[in-house]
Every structure is written in structure tokens, then in C-alpha cells.
């Protein structure tokens, strides 16, 4: 039983500290007649990392995309708690943005949603894409500050200073004026991560962040994600890197056939999978030949 | 061997350039500017998920591309007065050419928008942009790069097509040429001279296209 399911008789402070940051219930999504998500339930606590693993086509990326509003679910609810001081990302309201993260957001997709609701939900998370999806016509720095300045309407000087600090942290200070095509894949993905961080989200979403990278560039990106996890960022990561998932995640969920087949602590799930499907998947992944 | 009448050649040069500067060039520029705005609207309508919007755009493009420009020009200038709409030569020409450019450029712009990877829309949405903002700040700048060569083609065609305006009494380069040719009887010399001036204008445009492409290509690997 997760802490979030406890009765809410505890004090406000306790509730805020123990309540889940993200709660997904009965999430459904079909593309035409193809049911991609049957019914997905998942919970991510504050400062926790959830890794989604599973075969391709299992729906794990679709889950992530629903969280950021890139897909509109057909049913189910997605709930994100109010921003708390313990959240790594944005606290309180982003001036001018029109969404208030000091209150929880709870979107029920079984009924028609408003664009305001969807914007509120999207505002809570930021996504790192498999293929980086940096804006090719903007420099590295412009890529990072575009959202905070243009969408969130924060002061340019403040955002720029923050962006430069983030770029320094990932070792790309000297690339701030470069265009994405001038960077290696690993560098582009680090800019992608910085772009997500600059949005000050409550929740970071990673969609197979190293799948498009050359093997020798994977390490840098994984190390950065691990650092962020250690700093207490709340994350959902879709990945094929089992070793990495074990390292970084507090919990792993195995997704197959549009549903979460089983979930648990990394060691438990990877070493002693309870379900036949999980066992088969892990077996195939660990013994490719 | 017929000796060219150089005196006539140089004497008619400036009247023709004058026709280009006061007729051909402003006509082409104005029609292209209006046509581009029209084309952008049509391209977005065509890409709309609303059936009736894309249907209207599709019909418009089909009619414009499926009928001769000269016929469009004549319908507006000679045809409309019979239903009580009298338009002067200049505005008639601008209306006809704008409508025409709108139809052709719409397909170019639509294709250019579609050429921008879907991931760019998603990244724009991810950072919180609305559809309109994603379009103006992320998609169109990238589509612009792709559409410069085909739009330059459209523009160069338009410059030459403006010669048709002489048939609805607009004083342009070609009308000057016609007038000089008919009183001097030097058809070969004068029309070749007119061709030369058109060619020079288009050369300048091609150079401009080169500069623009280079400028927009600075963020692309080669």
C-alpha cells in the first residue's frame, strides 16, 4: 500500500510530505481501433524516480506522452499535487503564465477536458525526447530560454543567468551560441535536459533519452540523469537500459500490452519477477543470442 | 546582314526601364506580397482539420491552378464590368496576380510546413506553446528555409507574367516595348531588348534568392 492511499487524517504538513506527486488512475488510450493503453495505474512520490520498461509497442512511451499532454487520453485521471517547497522544480506561480502550481491539478479524461485543464497539467512536467527535438534555428541558449521567456514570461536577464548556470553544469558553456547541428548527439541531449530543467517543472519525463545516442556518448547523459535523481528531482523514465534503471530508479514498472504488468523495487523486480511476461521480457533482454 | 539601329536601341532603353520601374516591378512586388499573405492563410486552411476550411482552400487552389492567368485577368478586367463591377487596370492586375500567386504559393507553403518534423511541434507544445505560437516561432521559421527556392520560382514567374498586364492597359515594360516597336517597326530589336531587361531583373532576383538561402541555411549542417 502506498502512502498516498492512507486515510487523510494526518496533519496538513504530513499529508504534503507523504502524498504522491503524480497519480494516474485507469488511463486509457486508443489509436483508432488499436487499444494502446488498457488501463494504467501508477504513482510517483515526491523526489522519486519511476522507470518504465517493456517491449516496444507496449505503451510505455504513450503513458509518458499522456502525462505531458502530447496525447489526449480517452479515459482515466491524472493528478499532480500542488507544488511544495520540497519539489526541485518551480514553486508557486509562474508570473504571467496563467497556471498556478500552488494548487493541485486533477484532470478526468473520461469527460471532455478544457484547454485550460490540459495546459495546467502540461505545465507541471517537462519532457526530454528520444531524438532531442531541439529547435534547429535557435542557438543553444535560445533553445533553453525560449519557454521560460516566451511562454512563462519570466524576465530575460533572470532566465538567461539561470540557463547559463545550467549549461555550465553540463559542461556546455562554450556552446551557448552554437546551433544544434554543431553539437554531438550527447551534447544535444544534455541541452534537451537543460531545456527541460529551465522550465522548472515539478516532474521530469524522459523518453528513451539515450536510445538515439552512439554507445560511447550514453554514459555522460545517464550520469547527468542520475545526478538529477540524486538531487531529488521527481522523474518518470522510459528506458531500455536495465542497468541504468536499477541504478537510478526507486521503482520499476514493467509495461506490456498497454497495462502495468508488475511493478516494484528495482532489485526485486529485476531479480525476482513475479509474472511470466516479465520473466520472458527480462530473459530476452539479458540473453539476446 | 542587317545593321542594328543602335540609336533606337539606346533611345528606347530608358522608356522601357521606366516601364519596368513604374509598372513591372511594383506590380510584381505588390502582388507577391499580397499573394504570400493569401497563400499562408490558404495553406493553414488546407492543413486545418476542419473539413469545410480545407475544402474551400482546396477548391480555390484547384480553380486558380486549373485556369489560365490571362483568362483570370480578362475575367476581372473585361468580365466584371458586365455585372457592374468596374475596376481600373492597375487594381485589376494586382487582384488577378495576387489571387494567382496565392494559389500557387499556398501549395509551396503547405508542403514546407509539412516538411518540418513532427517532433518540432511536440517540443514547442512541451515548453508550453499554443498552436499559434508554435507555428509562428518554431514551425514557420523552419518552413521558410525550405520554401525559399520554390517561392523564388513563383516570384520569377510572376515578374514575367506581369507582361500580360499590358493586355489590360497597364503601362509596364512590355507595353512600352509594344508601343516603340509598332511605330519604329523594329520588332526584333525592341522585343529582344525587352527580353534582355526582363532577364536582368530575374538575374538580380536569383542573386537575392542566393543570399536569402545562405542566410537561412546558417543553422543547417552541410
Radius of gyration of chain A: 19 Å
Q: Please mark out the parts of chain B with pLDDT under 50 across 5 or more consecutive residues, or reply none.
A: none
Q: What is the annotated CATH architecture of the largest domain in chain A?
A: 3-Layer(aba) Sandwich
Give the terminus-to-terminus CA distance of chain B.
Answer: 52 Å
CATH superfamily of chain B: MetI-like
Question: Which structural class best describes the helix and strand composition of chain A?
Answer: alpha/beta
CATH level-3 fold name of chain B: MetI-like fold
**Tally of DSSP β-strands of chain A:** 10
Can you walk me through this structure?
The complex is a heterodimer of chains A (289) and B (222). With 289 residues, chain A is α/β, with parallel strands linked by helices. Chain A has two domains: 19-124 and 204-289, P-loop containing nucleotide triphosphate hydrolases (Rossmann fold); 133-200, no CATH class. Chain A is 36% helix and 22% strand. Chain A is built from ten helices and ten strands. Chain A has helices at residues 12-18, 60-67, 115-122, 140-151, 156-169, 185-198, 215-230, 242-248, 266-271, 276-286; strands spanning 20-31, 34-45, 49-53, 75-80, 105-108, 125-128, 203-207, 234-238, 251-256, 259-264. In chain A, the strands form two sheets. A six-stranded mixed beta sheet of chain A has the order 6-7-8-3-9-10, with helices on both faces. In chain A, a hairpin with a 2-residue loop joins strand 1 (20-31) and strand 2. With 222 residues, chain B is mostly helical. Chain B has one domain (6-216): MetI-like (MetI-like fold, Orthogonal Bundle), CATH 1.10.3720.10. In chain B, helix 1 runs antiparallel to helix 7 (173-184), helix 2 (51-66) crosses helix 4 (89-115) and helix 4 (89-115) crosses helix 6 (131-161). In chain B, 36% of the residues are buried. The A-B interface holds A 68-70, 97, 119, 122-123, 126-127, 129, 131, 133-138, 146-147, 150-152, 179-182, 195, 199 and B 117, 119-120, 122-129, 133, 137-138, 141-142, 145, 218-221.
Amino acid at each position: 500500500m502506498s502512502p498516498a492511499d492512507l486515510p487523510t487524517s494526518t496533519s496538513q504538513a504530513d499529508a504534503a510530505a507523504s502524498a504522491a506527486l503524480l497519480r494516474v488512475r485507469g488511463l486509457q488510450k486508443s489509436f483508432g481501433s488499436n487499444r494502446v493503453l488498457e488501463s494504467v495505474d501508477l504513482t510517483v512520490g515526491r523526489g522519486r524516480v519511476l522507470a518504465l520498461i517493456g517491449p516496444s509497442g507496449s505503451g510505455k512511451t504513450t503513458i509518458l506522452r499522456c502525462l505531458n499532454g502530447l496525447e489526449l487520453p480517452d479515459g482515466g485521471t491524472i493528478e499532480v499535487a500542488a507544488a511544495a517547497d520540497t519539489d526541485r522544480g518551480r514553486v508557486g506561480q509562474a508570473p504571467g503564465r496563467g497556471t498556478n502550481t500552488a494548487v493541485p491539478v486533477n484532470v478526468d479524461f473520461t469527460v471532455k477536458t478544457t484547454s485550460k485543464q490540459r495546459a495546467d497539467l502540461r505545465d507541471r512536467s517537462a519532457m526530454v525526447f528520444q531524438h532531442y527535438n531541439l529547435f534547429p534555428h535557435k542557438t543553444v541558449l535560445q533553445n533553453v530560454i525560449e519557454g521560460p521567456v516566451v511562454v512563462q514570461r519570466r524576465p530575460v536577464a533572470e532566465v538567461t543567468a539561470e540557463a547559463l548556470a545550467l549549461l555550465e553544469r553540463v559542461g556546455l558553456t562554450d556552446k551557448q551560441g552554437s546551433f544544434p547541428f554543431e553539437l554531438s548527439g550527447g551534447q544535444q541531449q544534455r541541452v534537451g535536459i537543460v531545456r527541460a530543467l529551465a522550465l522548472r517543472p515539478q516532474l521530469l519525463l524522459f523518453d528513451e533519452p539515450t536510445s538515439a545516442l552512439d554507445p560511447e556518448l550514453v554514459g555522460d547523459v545517464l550520469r547527468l540523469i542520475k545526478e538529477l535523481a540524486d538531487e531529488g528531482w521527481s522523474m518518470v523514465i522510459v528506458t531500455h537500459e536495465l542497468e541504468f534503471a536499477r541504478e537510478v530508479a526507486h521503482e520499476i514498472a514493467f509495461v506490456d500490452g498497454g497495462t502495468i504488468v508488475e511493478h516494484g523495487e528495482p532489485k526485486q523486480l529485476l531479480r525476482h519477477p513475479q509474472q511470466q511476461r516479465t520473466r520472458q521480457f527480462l530473459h530476452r533482454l539479458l540473453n539476446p543470442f | 546582314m542587317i545593321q542594328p539601329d543602335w540609336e533606337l536601341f539606346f533611345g528606347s532603353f530608358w522608356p522601357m526601364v521606366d516601364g519596368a520601374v513604374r509598372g513591372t516591378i511594383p506590380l510584381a512586388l505588390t502582388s507577391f506580397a499580397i499573394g504570400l499573405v493569401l497563400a499562408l492563410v490558404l495553406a493553414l486552411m488546407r492543413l486545418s482539420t476542419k473539413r469545410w476550411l480545407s475544402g474551400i482552400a482546396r477548391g480555390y487552389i484547384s480553380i486558380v491552378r486549373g485556369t489560365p492567368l490571362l483568362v483570370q485577368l480578362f475575367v476581372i478586367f473585361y468580365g466584371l464590368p458586365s455585372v457592374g463591377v468596374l475596376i481600373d487596370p492597375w487594381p485589376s492586375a494586382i487582384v488577378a496576380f495576387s489571387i494567382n500567386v496565392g494559389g500557387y504559393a499556398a501549395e509551396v507553403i503547405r508542403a514546407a510546413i509539412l516538411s518540418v518534423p513532427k517532433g518540432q511541434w511536440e517540443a514547442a507544445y512541451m515548453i508550453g506553446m499554443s498552436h499559434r505560437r508554435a507555428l509562428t516561432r518554431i514551425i514557420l521559421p523552419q518552413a521558410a528555409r525550405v520554401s525559399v527556392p520554390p517561392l523564388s520560382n513563383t516570384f520569377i514567374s510572376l515578374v514575367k507574367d506581369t507582361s500580360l498586364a499590358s493586355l489590360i492597359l497597364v503601362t509596364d515594360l512590355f507595353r512600352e516595348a509594344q508601343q516603340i516597336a509598332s511605330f519604329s517597326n523594329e520588332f526584333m530589336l525592341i522585343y529582344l531588348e525587352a527580353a534582355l531587361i526582363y532577364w536582368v531583373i530575374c538575374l538580380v532576383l536569383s542573386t537575392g534568392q542566393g543570399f536569402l538561402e545562405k542566410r537561412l541555411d546558417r543553422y543547417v549542417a552541410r
